[in-house]
Amino acid sequence: MKNQYNILIAGVGGQGNLVCGCVLAEAALQQGLTPTTGETFGASRRGGTVLTHLRLDADDLGPLIPREQLDLLLGLEPLESLRAAVDLATSRTTAIISMTKIETPESIAGKVKYPEITEIKRSLRAICGKVYSLDPGRIFAETGTRRALNAYMLGAMVTSGVTSLTEEHILRAIQTTLKEWDLNRVAFEAGKKDFRSLVDL
Amino acid sequence: MESSSGSKVLMSGNEAIARGALEAGICFCASYPGTPSTEIAAALMKSSQNHDIYVEWSVNEKVALEACVAASWAGIPALCSMKSLGLNVAADFLLNVNLSGTGAGGVVLVVCDDPRGHSSSNEQDSRFYAKAAYLPLLEPSTCQQAKDVISIALALSQKHRIPVIVRSTTRLSHSRSVVKLREIASATCTTSEELANAPYNVPNPHLKHQELGMKLKEIAQDFEKSKLNSVSGGENTDTLIIASGVAFRYTKEAVDLLNIPSVQIVNLLTSHPLPQKDVVDWIKNRQKVLFVEEVDPFIEDGVLAIAAELHLDEIPTFSGKRNGVVPFFGELDTNTVMDALRSIQGIPQKHQDEQDLNTLKLARQMLIPRRLTFCAGCTHRNVYWALGRVKRRIKEGLIVTGDIGCYSLGVFYNEAMNTMQAMGSGIGTASGLGQLERFGLKQKVVTVAGDSTFFHACLPGLVNAKHKNANMTFLILDNSTTAMTGFQPNPGTSKQRLGNTVVSIESIVRAIEPSHFEIINAVDIDAMIETIHKAVEIDGLKVILVNSVCRLEEQRLGKTHEEFSRVVVDINLCKGENCRICTDQFSCLAIGWNENLKKAEVIENLCIRCGACIPVCPHDAIKGAEP
Ligand code: SF4
Ligand code: SF4
Hints:
The complex is a heterodimer of chains A (201) and B (627).
Chain A: E1 6-12, H1 17-30, E2 36-39, E3 49-55, E4 72-75, H2 78-88, E5 94-98, H3 105-108, H4 117-127, E6 130-134, H5 137-143, H6 149-160, H7 167-177, H8 181-200
Parallel strand pairs in A: 1-4, 4-5, 5-6
Antiparallel strand pairs in A: 1-3, 2-3
Helix pairs in contact in A: 1-7, 2-4, 6-8
Chain B: E1 8-12, H1 13-24, E2 28-31, H2 38-47, E3 54-57, H3 61-73, E4 78-83, H4 84-100, E5 107-113, H5 128-132, E6 137-138, H6 143-160, E7 164-169, H7 170-173, E8 175-180, H8 205-225, E9 230-233, E10 239-244, H9 246-257, E11 264-268, E12 270-272, H10 276-283, E13 288-292, H11 298-307, E14 317-319, H12 334-345, H13 354-366, H14 379-393, E15 398-402, E16 419-420, H15 425-433, E17 444-450, H16 451-467, E18 472-478, H17 505-512, E19 516-521, H18 525-537, E20 541-547, H19 551-556, E21 567-569, H20 581-586, E22 591-594, E23 599-602, E24 622-624
Parallel strand pairs in B: 2-3, 2-4, 4-5, 5-7, 6-7, 10-11, 10-13, 13-14, 15-16, 15-17, 17-18, 18-20, 19-20
Antiparallel strand pairs in B: 1-8, 6-12, 9-11, 21-24, 22-23
Helix pairs in contact in B: 1-2, 1-6, 3-4, 9-12, 14-18, 15-16
The structure holds iron/sulfur cluster (2 copies).
């Protein structure tokens, strides 16, 4: 059997989780791989948890990543990243996570408390092999929107060098799959830069 | 969808089925939206801009199947797609037309099951309809197969003049992988001179039954000769796995991960009728046979029946859903298949490290749920809030029955909705409850349905309620779209596709002449409370048409709310912790809690300034901001 590389994108409905999976799958296809993605729908538009499973060179393997087989957790939201990590991550897993939280309806209403980010980070570090926490706050402020979070995270991912996907292929896939190329281009570069400064520290 | 022959593209299972329909030369598609099947007809609808095909969102699945079969009678190849529960609606027709026969055009019926009920109220296995109706059923495993199987199914239907069922499941319909395309059929469709010969079953349905049975035998023999089912893995082994659909892919990976390559796997595409001779060859003289299939032991039972004809010493030990080696409920995945294989092969379970378990336990304690709720400003919330207030005023209490749509979330909203089953069953159950006063039922009966559900399945219930003078109030929550499945137009939608006509819910209801009828606006909560209260107290069938708004649809159409004045909480009037009615009970997503001030606050970027919450606050603290 080929060595599988498995990516899970975890986030909240409305964050563009599914298109992010499409970009990666498209990039993999253009690189000559045979990707498979599994998507969770339905609840996705209504603010629920959304997961996209991506297997970079799966041929006909199932769309869902089995336990202990997760290589990269691309987290668009901290709480949802932790939820996904609890189910699937191990020391094999690298996690690249945006730490900008999205409160839940109950935590907004003050009925429960959203966990402390430092606690989430600590827990992620205990579960995953490596954890990179990113703060897209600056790029959100600069561009005045959260729509480019995917491109930002992909920029970070490319710089981490954890996958075999090349910058060239990902950029091209962003261009063909996402709208708003200018915005996404800027966010992609910001993601690259922020990741580099993380590693330099 | 439109890429050229030979190219390899990423497609979801549903898109692949739609592309398969184009390649097969299908010219007619009718469907009713339902997750996880919706994207099939949606993709074909998009393609109808470039190809000469007819695609419609029918009023329900039965009408969709009837329309498709009629097309086939006139020589037009047709595809009908629906979700699992939709086939229940279409089943009455299916179990007649299987005998009458479809036409020269052929009909492919695609049914998408939803194991675990991710987007459904049950996890039914629709394959039993193939058995009940004596129809062939194919189960593709991959997106490529999902595409290719449509041509095969259509040819089979054209040859035997019966509908051919293709079964998908959520994980196939909603997964994407690489599909190699063939040419889209170029021939145009033309109706035949005459309709199919005598499509009815009387006076001798039993002879039609006999004829159908013979067809099915012939098809089983065709399947035996075909290359549709494949065997992979090691040779001459003791253990065989028979797997179908997406579960075949889990099985392959489970075998790889457990590193037991000697096991043989059958990828069964022709789940019904089973290729009897092949089955005998596969299972004879094995020691163990394991079945891996989504939801029910359908193939398992079929194979067990065939095995009854073997000599005793040739019969293997069977494992699957019957003996509990594979769980009989819920969705499968690679891990469940690995567990099943460990159990029959005597491979020990993996030992979990104590420290890891502890880490996970601590992490789990942090996870707060992210529950589904109505969107900010959703008018369904307003309706349920109003119902809650009416309930308080009526000493006998209310029973609120309901059914399927975004408004189903009412069961989670302060228990505002008490019952929820099938499309249209809200009014059906209410019309029964509406007769029970004579036996002592005290509560007032109210039922709710959305506009798409109204057309789909409420009309017979409504007529019944009027005819029998059921004592009940029917609220029609009309937001003018099928929001749950992605905003498909229905007959009541004001903006229609070219060539379609608006059918007015108001005119239909007025024609039925309920004892009381009113139209109200769902943003005005105070008026709603009064109107519903008044109606509930009147005797007879009362209908209230509630003009509602889908905020997602608004967002999708680019509507902003800038022109309305902001809605704010006056912290001098807000009673804080002693009250919390707006956050804990009304619970609009856009009302938050300010921890520092210990007061409610409106979250600017979520609030759509509808003002519905203003009358909710008993202390007049929520108000429109001065412009
Ligand atoms: S309902 Fe009114 S008084 Fe009560 S918490 Fe909300 S804003 Fe404050
Ligand atoms: S005005 Fe009130 S009900 Fe409407 S969206 Fe804003 S907070 Fe929610």
